[in-house]
Amino acid sequence: MYLPLLFIFPLLFISSQGSVQDFCVGDLSLPNGPAGYSCKKSSKVTENDFVYHGLAIAGNTTNIIKAAVTPAFDAQFPGVNGLGISIARLDLAVGGVIPFHTHPGASEILVVIQGTIYAGFISSFDNVVYLKTLNKGDVMVFPQGLLHFQVNPSKIPAIAFASFGSSNPGLQITDFAFFKNDLPTELLAETSFLDVAQIKKLKGVLGGTN
Amino acid sequence: MYLPLLFIFPLLFISSQGSVQDFCVGDLSLPNGPAGYSCKKSSKVTENDFVYHGLAIAGNTTNIIKAAVTPAFDAQFPGVNGLGISIARLDLAVGGVIPFHTHPGASEILVVIQGTIYAGFISSFDNVVYLKTLNKGDVMVFPQGLLHFQVNPSKIPAIAFASFGSSNPGLQITDFAFFKNDLPTELLAETSFLDVAQIKKLKGVLGGTN
Amino acid sequence: MYLPLLFIFPLLFISSQGSVQDFCVGDLSLPNGPAGYSCKKSSKVTENDFVYHGLAIAGNTTNIIKAAVTPAFDAQFPGVNGLGISIARLDLAVGGVIPFHTHPGASEILVVIQGTIYAGFISSFDNVVYLKTLNKGDVMVFPQGLLHFQVNPSKIPAIAFASFGSSNPGLQITDFAFFKNDLPTELLAETSFLDVAQIKKLKGVLGGTN
Amino acid sequence: MYLPLLFIFPLLFISSQGSVQDFCVGDLSLPNGPAGYSCKKSSKVTENDFVYHGLAIAGNTTNIIKAAVTPAFDAQFPGVNGLGISIARLDLAVGGVIPFHTHPGASEILVVIQGTIYAGFISSFDNVVYLKTLNKGDVMVFPQGLLHFQVNPSKIPAIAFASFGSSNPGLQITDFAFFKNDLPTELLAETSFLDVAQIKKLKGVLGGTN
Amino acid sequence: MYLPLLFIFPLLFISSQGSVQDFCVGDLSLPNGPAGYSCKKSSKVTENDFVYHGLAIAGNTTNIIKAAVTPAFDAQFPGVNGLGISIARLDLAVGGVIPFHTHPGASEILVVIQGTIYAGFISSFDNVVYLKTLNKGDVMVFPQGLLHFQVNPSKIPAIAFASFGSSNPGLQITDFAFFKNDLPTELLAETSFLDVAQIKKLKGVLGGTN
Amino acid sequence: MYLPLLFIFPLLFISSQGSVQDFCVGDLSLPNGPAGYSCKKSSKVTENDFVYHGLAIAGNTTNIIKAAVTPAFDAQFPGVNGLGISIARLDLAVGGVIPFHTHPGASEILVVIQGTIYAGFISSFDNVVYLKTLNKGDVMVFPQGLLHFQVNPSKIPAIAFASFGSSNPGLQITDFAFFKNDLPTELLAETSFLDVAQIKKLKGVLGGTN
Q1: Which residues of this UniProt protein bind Mn(2+) (chains A, B, C, D, E, F) (predicted)?
Q2: Which residues of D fall within a CB distance of 8 Å from F39?
Q3: How far is CA E6 from the centre of its chain?
Q4: Rounded to an integer, what is the distance from CA C204 to the centroid of its chain?
Q5: Closest alpha carbon to A138 in A156, A158, A157, A155
Q6: Are B99 and B192 members of one domain?
């Protein structure tokens, strides 16, 4: 039976106190916790909190790796706080390299937007290597926490977007972890099996000490 | 003290039975469970399981909505099974519309690759509407389960990628749920407050019965 | 060997600092986060924090839908904060209707306490409709995020309790999302395929503008 | 701009292989896993899978505790499998007692449907006791894993529904765990500090041996 | 092609605001939430936050149970906050007993370091008892929320470490919950089936009242 | 009011079909899924499924790293399947080194049982190094997915147990990932910034090719 509606009908659902929480835009000025940042008051949330323009501009690839990663994680894009998702832009100039790295907290999907990317990851079981050349529109998934890399093997710049199943996936670049801090050279030699000369060379390049 | 390594050293880590599970490529022929598909045997997994080419081709937009959604969820791209992430390609021709829909199981990040997209979602609290025009490179997040839409307001075709924090986010298009099945017209009128004539018209368009 | 206990025995477990956290009664005056409200200090928690009387009274059904939903979510009943569960009372007068809606964050179990309820939900896959008449004591489950409704098809008022697998399941009523706000009529027509006249009529009924 | 729809429009969303998984009705004949039972094939799922009639009938309270718990967990009601929610019916005759027990896997919300229930739980921190008398329509929450009980202190039978934030919350009744099995009496005396005579008496009542 | 690195290369990854959150050392002075304590500012975190010395010293077993549990949960060891793991030390003198207890929020793995431990747990299904004698180096797992105990059946003191899959597993000792508070004797008799005399005796031993 | 119990009382809780699932001992012969292995039938589960003896024996440290890791993950110890916890034994002879590695799926707590261990991890934010010397009974936590190492700096062998907040934490040793497979030398040079000579040397030591 069809129900004619002729008059305004009153509120069906009355939330007597507090608000229903559809989202939790991060307020970076409040304390954060294990699940993310505290929520911005909903009365102050606007449509701008859900949009990020920072990935529209190419990252600066005039560096020695000829590449740039521009993140839109919760710290840059507080609208994703608590929603279990984030994104980053990858720019790889000709010869560009995103060196071996891991995301401690999430798996990644990469989609190539321009150019060609040669990518790979290494399984922790038997150290199996999975390598693929990805063209425009191709998608590759990198399971959580595993070492992976991306390089531009072609003659034109490459662009890709990497999505993550966490608003705070983390990014640990092995070279930076090893060579871009004050980790003592002898200790690193002992725990990485790298030669002292190799370590000193890369510490020099990356600004590490000790 | 630096440790010289002159000889092959034996396996440090011996997994005596079974395999360490870095990933769980879905085997669609085996039973699935609440957490996803059963895993393909790791001996049969190759690099091709982690790559999907289906998003490289534009979806067919020669339809009345002038738009197409091409998913790479676990059912199409079993490599994402269990990894908590998936992706889809959106093609919107001039005048294209992805009508109001929800993803029951995940939040979404949209990144515009070409053209302009006008998008919005509606909060469940006070029915607040959040609307934005997104240009190339802009990113917008749609919190889990909320009604949202995307349209192409410009004079050129638009392309976007939508990433999800689930390998199986689901997609429920309100029009399809209401008008593209055998849900009785009178019942739908009663539960949606839509006029019978309106319902019959849209059932006619979408192929619904009753 | 049986151990006779003749004297007071000292504390086995000494928590040297802080408290073991069995629960986290929400303090609505403190910031909330993605996982819920901050916890009330345990020294201030009493038995009253774990009990809610607000569902003992029938909701007011003298409205055009002849129905009422009374929630005991974390905002109303802070004792459930962080415990992954909440409840609501449904009152449906004769002819009462809870129109199509979703809960973005949780699945629902409905148990009928009085009268008869005709309920249904729509799958996102192939838009399959699942409809059932529920009598007193019958239970129905509505999977997370899917469109569903409840109506009272009988000659006596119906009462039900709906439980949710989240302390903050959310509630998005499609009609309210479409017609009870300032979403522009032409945009809604474009993204819902509804006729402008239909939209204007329902905006009129529900108090929407634009 | 409003979009007139005059013709059938083709499938917007084509799932090329497999199905979108909105739910996972348990198939009790297939192996289960840590997340629940394997899913029944969606082609075999009907509306009856989402409804359970077993709670419509009062449990048999003609026993020494004058009470009954009738569960609708995943093993009885496979429709809830994987959805993170379940329900049970409690019948307490006059003088009825649901003795101290825990649910290892979920928090519980109790709603009283008929009569009066006196309920309580014990915190693990400082062993604080929270006790309340609940009348018809009152709701109480019992945090996950904590010891709690329900008794009927009134002159009329009581009925309640208990909802859980898991499709498989478990139920461990302390008396049954201690006295309704072959746990050796001396070992139980040593680990519970109960007198041997008390243990033998209750083993006799509950059918325990050793 | 090998890429020579001759010069310092600039930051690849620039986090423009906020910090990437690898960990969340608990700040016990700030409000906690359902997911744990608020995070200590990362600028104040040192290596000492990740180390705990409190388990290096034997617990005092000169008590009537001849045993001690020394926890390193988030309240004692804030470095584990949010990381889903914690640990405790068990000391059992000759004849020592950790009486029946549960951890409401986590499963436990026990590893014996010294001596012999006789341990067991009780399943909630059919009250099945699982008992084992554990020697040095043996490991036993106790599923979440189930009643279990540990005793020292040997002639030498025993030491073990218990690890938990939560930074706040909780600990509810059944005797303490029943007898070490003001739970009224008659109510406990009714809900535990224990004799009043037995209850009064154990309340006397453990310091309970009422 | 105390309730005398003179007669056997019937089953309070009747599970009409299927079993309540307290645990899910892995059956390695059945398919696994994203949440772990399928469950062994409960009728076949014995106490032996919950105990593992494999950590009672020292790992063989007569190798070039003078160390051994012996895991009790779900593949070795199926009793932990689905319980979110596992453990491993570390043996470090004098001069022993567990080289830099990550666990992609879990945080780790290390407790030193014998000797002294010098351990450290590197944060992904600013590449901060956290280093500590751990003595017997000391505990250190390593947050999920971050590079860490352990060495024995003392004159006596060291033993430790490492617990993980997952039944399948994974273990990726950076040296093995880089040098113990067929990852092409030039590609590794390009993506790790290591010299070709260094790579060839370590591939020789570890058995890598290409």
Answers
A1: 101, 103, 108, 148
A2: 31-34
A3: 52
A4: 27
A5: A158
A6: no
pLDDT at D64: 87
Positive or negative CA dihedral for A204, A205, A209, B3?
A: negative
C in contact with A (at least 3 C-beta pairs within 8 A): yes
Top residue of B73, B90, B111 to mutate, by most chain A CBs within 10 Å, is B111
Distance CA D37, CA F58 (A): 39
Q: D47 labelled as ligand-binding? A: no
Q: Which two tokens stand for residue A52?
A: 């990020």
Strand-strand pairing, E129-134 and E139-142:
unpaired
Q: Do F74 and B3 touch (CB under 8 A)?
A: no
CB–CB of D68 and F12 under 8 A? yes
Q: How far is residue A83 from each of residues A37, B109, F124, measured CA to CA in Å?
A: 11, 10, 21
- Cα separation, E169 vs E146, in Å, equals 12
One domain, residues D144 and D191: no
Same domain, C133 and C183: no
Q: Are residues E193 and E98 in the same domain?
A: no
**pLDDT 10s digits, E3-12:** 444 333 434 4
Do residues A37 and A73 touch, judged by C-beta distance below 8 A? no
Judge: B51–A139 Cβ closer than 8 Å, yes or no.
Answer: yes
- CATH code for the domain in which residue C116 is found: 2.60.120.10
Average pLDDT (A77-83) is: 96
Please check whether residue F27 lies inside any domain of the structure: no
Domain that residue C66 falls in: 57-170
Cβ distance C9 to E202 less than 8 Å, yes or no, reads no
CB F150 within 8 A of CB F98: yes
* E172 close to E146: Cβ distance less than 8 angstroms: no
Cβ of B32 within 8 Å of Cβ of D13? The answer is no
Which of chain E's residues have a Cβ under 8 Å away from the Cβ of C6? Answer: 205
pLDDT digits (tens, 9 = 90+) for A109-160: 999 999 999 999 999 988 999 999 999 999 999 999 999 999 999 999 999 9
Please give, rounded to a whole number of angstroms, the shortest distance from the CA of E55 to a CA of chain D: 21
Number of independent structural domains in chain E? 2
Q: Which residues of F make CB contacts under 8 Å with A?
A: 97, 99-100, 102-105, 120, 122, 124, 126-129, 131, 143-147, 149, 151, 170-172, 174-178, 180-183, 187, 190-195, 198, 201-202, 205
What are residue C203's phi and psi, to 5 degrees?
-60, -40
- Is D81 a domain residue? yes
Q: Is F108 marked as binding a ligand?
A: yes
**In this structure, is residue D21 part of a structural domain?**
no
Residues F109, F74 within the same domain: yes
DSSP bridge partners of A132:
A119
Compute CA distances A200 → A178, B4, D69, whole Å. 11, 17, 70
DSSP F89-107: EEEE-TT-EEEEEE-TT--
Q: How does DSSP classify residue E39? A: B
Which chain A residue is nearest to residue C98, measuring alpha carbons?
Answer: A12
Identify whether residues E72 and E163 lie together within a single domain: yes
Structural domain includes residue F165: yes
* pLDDT tens track for B6-20: 333 434 443 333 444
Cα D208 to Cα A145: distance, rounded to the nearest angstrom: 50
Please, are residues E122 and E147 in contact by the beta-carbon 8 Å criterion? yes
Q: What is the pLDDT of residues F149-197, one digit of tens each?
A: 999 999 999 999 999 999 999 999 999 999 999 999 999 999 999 999 9
- F99 with F191, same domain? no
For B23, which residue in chain F has the nearest alpha carbon?
F34
Cβ-based contacts of A172 with chain F (< 8 Å): 122, 124, 145-147
Q: Are A76 and A161 part of one and the same domain?
A: yes
Quote the ipTM score.
0.90
